[in-house]
Write a structure and sequence with these properties.
The chain is mainly α. Among the domains are: about 45 residues, no CATH class; about 180 residues, no CATH class. The chain has 14 helices and 2 strands; from the N terminus they run ββαααααααααααααα. The chain has a two-stranded antiparallel ribbon with strand order 1-2. A hairpin with a 6-residue loop joins β1 and β2. The radius of gyration is 29 Å and the shape is extended. The N and C termini lie far apart (about 70 Å).
């Protein structure tokens, strides 16, 4: 009887029986050929998103049974369902890949130098010149130049100098100079932070904001990773007497945001085929979904569930959403 031949695993570099389909040491599949493109794509989807039979088993629950995935996961039914984080990751990636297809950056940021815009600029300049003349010629108004430290009244005539420098920097950039050169030429006396802020503002102005939405969407996708734990923290406070672990609220939030992303993906796809759903229908659907998800997950009375759902949405809308948008905007401005 011949001895079995051995194969060296390219992953862990340890030998095992050639007839084995998987390495007994590290678990890598025994493959001696180059992957096809189809197999590579399948491997990517499988490892990143586990988009397999689990997804088709989980999606109906996510869509038609609000909160059921969370209940199943917390009760230990995990092998047959897609993990909460991978589901969240999959829908968020798909959404932020689709969004740029329906958002036209040119139409939003492009400066249309038409007659109305030129007239508006002229009116602004006239108002500024009038203010300057009044401050120089009127003795009573001259005293305003000395006012400092009073809320809403602290200003300086140096602003006119700053505006002139800004116009000079704009002209320099229009003549082919780099933004950094323009900043160094006209704002060399400013601090590092001020120079950086001016540099970014001139860059946005020079490019007419083209590409800013793309940067903002990327920043927003990253900012949501901060939004989600804060959202879960609000849930923790609202349901503090239920004695739930914080991670349970995180799991519920992952499923909730997965559904939100799914709805937004559907809306984007409908927009691409020129179909539009009224906003009130979308908002009503989301409210009812959160309401039923809360009810199924936290198992409280309908009165408490409705009250806490409204408190959750109010707190999120008034506090969390503005904070996240401000963070995303600042990040966009810094990395534009």
């Amino acid at each position: 009887m011949s001895e079995p031949s051995f194969y060296t695993c390219p992953n862990c570099e340890r030998s095992y029986n050639y007839d084995f389909q998987y390495c007994p040491h590290c678990g890598q599949k025994h493959e001696e050929r180059i992957f096809t493109l189809k197999e590579l794509l399948s491997d990517f989807l499988g490892s990143m998103f586990s988009f397999d039979s689990k997804a088709f088993h989980s999606l109906p629950k996510l869509i038609f049974k609000p909160g059921q995935l969370t209940v199943d996961y917390l009760n230990g039914k995990r092998a047959s369902n897609l993990s909460p984080f991978r589901m969240y990751l999959f829908f968020s990636v798909v959404l932020f890949l689709l969004l740029p297809t329906v958002i036209k950056e040119d139409s939003v940021f492009k400066v249309n130098d038409d007659v109305k815009v030129r007239e508006a600029k002229k009116n602004v300049n006239n108002v500024w010149l009038t203010i300057q003349d009044s401050l120089e010629t009127n003795d009573d108004l001259k005293e305003l130049k000395e006012i400092q430290g009073v809320p809403g009244m602290s200003f300086s005539l140096d602003d006119s100098s700053t505006l002139n420098k800004w116009k000079g920097a704009e002209e320099l950039i229009e003549n082919g100079a780099s933004v950094q050169t323009a900043v160094d030429s006209f704002f060399y006396d400013k601090g590092k932070l001020a120079q950086f802020t001016i540099n970014q503002a001139l860059k946005v102005n020079a490019k007419k904001g083209i590409g800013l939405i793309g940067v903002f969407l990327n920043s927003l996708s990253y900012s949501l990773f901060l939004f989600l734990p804060l959202f879960a923290a609000i849930l923790k406070m609202l349901y503090v007497r239920r004695k739930r672990f914080y991670v349970e609220h995180v799991i519920f939030s992952l499923h909730l945001f997965s559904f939100l992303f799914f709805v937004l993906i559907v809306l984007v796809l409908l927009t691409l085929v020129h179909l539009h759903i009224p906003l009130w229908i979308t908002l009503s659907l989301l409210f009812l979904y959160i309401l039923f998800a809360d009810k199924r997950t936290y198992a409280q009375s309908w009165g408490k569930t409705i009250l806490k759902t409204m408190m959750l949405l109010f707190t999120t809308t008034v506090f969390l959403v503005p904070i996240i948008f401000i963070i995303a905007t600042v990040i966009s401005f810094i990395f534009y």
